[in-house]
Amino acid sequence: MRKALQSDADALCFDLEDSVAVDRKRAARETVLLTLNAAPQGPEKLVRINSRPTGLAEEDLEIVLGSANLDGIVIPKVNSAQDVLFVESMIEKHAHPDIKASLRVVASIESAKAIMDIREIASSSLRLDSLLFAAEDFCADTGIRRTADRRELYHARSAVVLAAKAYSLSAIDLVCIHYQDLDVLREECEEGRNMGFDSKQIIHPAQIETVQKAYSPSEQDIAKARSILDQYEVSVKEGKGAYGLNGEMMDAPMILQAQRVLAKAKLFNLTS
To answer: Where in the chain are the domains?
Structure first.
């Protein structure tokens, strides 16, 4: 955990759920709290708690919400809006005063029920920041057999993206389990970005650079966005609406996309 805090990851998620044996849950909570308290700087820090039906989530939250260095809570196995509202109520009761106003929540979509009720989940709380798609758990819940081309997951992933965009949330794509195969990772990143995902989960530091590069605007993206907006200014002065650029028609949706590219580039310190 200390080593992770020195990484170039944008955010770290300390896990209290699947990676922790039942008889080590209490020790894990204390270890996470100590790590949070000792790390005011570095990447954003989130904690994945245990799911509400386990009966462990309440104590997880009572402990980790005591840190002033916590940025967010990842809620696993979200099946309804009530799972999010439960965490929201715990934050109101137990969050450190310094973080109560800014603390964000990530809902992990892992089941068929979650996909069917995703609209209610996505609109459940103003604290909700992102929807995350957990592929392995989703396959376990539905009996879907995961294949190399991921076609069987396309519908569920698209549902997560569309719900996120409809409610102004971020969409976080599945983990690439082949953590030593960067070619597969690049393929997944390109596919996820094309689908509208904003970022991707990783499980190994070797994946950081590839994912960050894939989800950051490229030099070509930035140059094209600038050209679109520059030509738009000319078009406005000439009293035109839609216009052409390099053989492509440019209108309001294209301009909006260009503005988003440049906003993201500025966020990543890729442009002034």
So the answer is: 4-215, 219-267
The number of helices, as runs of H, and strands, as runs of E, in the chain is 11, 9
Q: Which residues contact 167 (CB under 8 A, 6 or more apart)?
A: 122, 123, 128
Strands 248-250 and 104-109, bridge-based pairing: unpaired
Q: Of 26, 127, 120, give the one whose Cα is nearest residue 80.
A: 120
Q: Which CATH superfamily is domain 4-215 in?
A: Phosphoenolpyruvate-binding domains (3.20.20.60)
Measured distance CA(34)–CA(265) in Å, rounded: 35
Return d(Cα 244, Cα 51) in angstroms, integer.
Answer: 52
The model's pTM: 0.85
Query: What are the Cα distances from residue 184, in Å, to 147, 148, 175, 197?
Result: 12, 9, 11, 17
For the stretch 222-259, pLDDT in tens is 788 788 787 777 776 766 655 565 556 666 777 777 77
CB atoms within 10 A of CB 90: 18
